Each structure stands twice: as structure tokens, then as C-alpha cells.
Amino acid sequence: MKTKHKTNKQQYAYQVIRSRILDGRYPPGHKLVIDQLARELQTSAIPVREAIRLLEADSLISFKPYSGAIVTPFDEQAYLETLSVLAVLEGFATAESSIHFPHEKLDGLRVYTKLMEDALERLDYSLFSNYNKEFHKLTYRYCTNQFLLEQIHTTWERLGTVRQQGSTMKPVRMKRSVIEHYQLIEMMEKREDPKIVEAFARNHKLNTLKAFLEDSPQNSI
């Protein structure tokens, strides 16, 4: 029973810290103080320390000399590689899904896009990113290739480990992304050729990558 209780505390600490990293409350480079977290989570230091080890295995936390546990710094190369793969996977899945996509579900896509607009007006980039993810999950929900969907989920998880949510997309690109969402909805409503849908959905994601590269300090020199 004690082991189970200990495991539950460890899982709770893991989930809390992980969610705070992924939603941006703990940004890249943020130092994690074990004793402080233990007091906050009303537990001992042991479950927190074990949770941090698990998060290290997930690549969400790193250990820095003389600093201890910190949220893993932004990895630009890993971000670019992961987003490139996600563009290909989501493009194919969205095209497959568009063949079976129920017209009555199109309003759901419009709702998410409108919520993205509202979040952008409030400069809430983290919320914008959340709604963007939900929008795309719905676009490929009716893809029948379950293995492909699993790979997309895994790739999204990896994307969350290499960047702070909402930190890699700039306002100008966000506005353009919203416009592209409405274009994609129109294509799906018209049952556009799946090959055209695939290319558009893939390029939509790659446009985010291009905007990031254009705004990179290396390209402003």
C-alpha cells in the first residue's frame, strides 16, 4: 500500500510539472527547486525528485552544472526537424480525412479558428497555440490510418519538448495562419481533390517553419 501511495504522489508531481512546462508556465531555462515544489504539492521531496527524473527521460528537463534541474532550453534544430516531419504527416492525414469528413463537423473547425482570432486579439499566444492544435486534430480526425495518427501524436509530443508553447510563432504568421485555416475549411467543404488538400495542409505547416527561419537572428545579420 505504501508503494502504491508513493507511486500516486510521483505520478501527480509528474503530471503537474509536465503540464506547467508544456503550457509555458515553466519556460525554457526555468530552474526547478525540489523543496519548493514539494511544499507546493504537499508531498515530500522524494516523489518530486523521481518525477523530475521521469521528465528528464522525456527530454523536458535537463540538469545544468551548479544549477540543478532546469526546463530544457529551446532546441532550434530539433524544432525545425520535428515541424518538417509533422508537416508531411499532417498533410497526408488531413487529405485522407477530407474524403470522409462530415459536413456537419465543419462548424467545429470554424469555432476553433474564431477562438484563435480571439486569442490573438488578446495576445494570448499560448491559448492560440492550444486552439491551433485542436483545429488540426479535428481536420485529420477522420483519417482511417491509425498508425499514422499515432505517429502524429508522438510528433506533437516531441514538438512540445523542444519549444515553449506559442513562443515560435510570430503575430504576423499567426494572422496568416488563421486565413489559411479558413481556406482549408473551404477546401474540405467543397470536397477538393485530396492531393490538393494534402499539399495545402503540408505547406500550411511549412509556412510556419519558413516564417520562423525568416525571423531567426541568424538571418537578420
Strand and helix layout:
Layout (H helix, E strand, L loop, with lengths): L1 H21 L11 H7 L4 H13 L3 E4 L3 E4 L4 H25 L5 H16 L3 H15 L6 H17 L8 H19 L4 H21 L7
Antiparallel strand pairs: 1-2
Protein name: GntR family transcriptional regulator
Keywords: DNA-binding, Transcription, Transcription regulation
Pfam families: FCD (PF07729), GntR (PF00392)
**From the alpha-carbon coordinates, what is the Rg to the nearest angstrom?**
20 Å
- Helical proportion? 55-70%
Question: Can you tell me the CATH topology of the largest domain?
Answer: Four Helix Bundle (Hemerythrin (Met), subunit A)
Along the chain, the helix and strand elements come as: HHHEEHHHHHH
At the fourth level of CATH, the homologous superfamily of the largest domain is GntR ligand-binding domain-like
Largest sheet: 2 strands, antiparallel
Amount of beta strand: under 5%
Mean pLDDT: 88
Q: What is the distance, rounded to the nearest whole angstrom, between the alpha carbons of the first and last residues? A: 61 Å
The total tally of domains equals: 2
Shape: elongated
Low-confidence parts, pLDDT < 50 over ≥5 residues? Answer: 217-221
Structural class by helix and strand composition: mainly alpha
The CATH architecture assignment of the largest domain turns out to be Up-down Bundle
List the total number of helices: 9
Order of neighbouring strands in the sheet with most strands? 1-2
Keywords: DNA-binding, Transcription, Transcription regulation
GO molecular function: DNA binding; DNA-binding transcription factor activity
Protein name: GntR family transcriptional regulator
Domain HTH gntR-type: 7-74
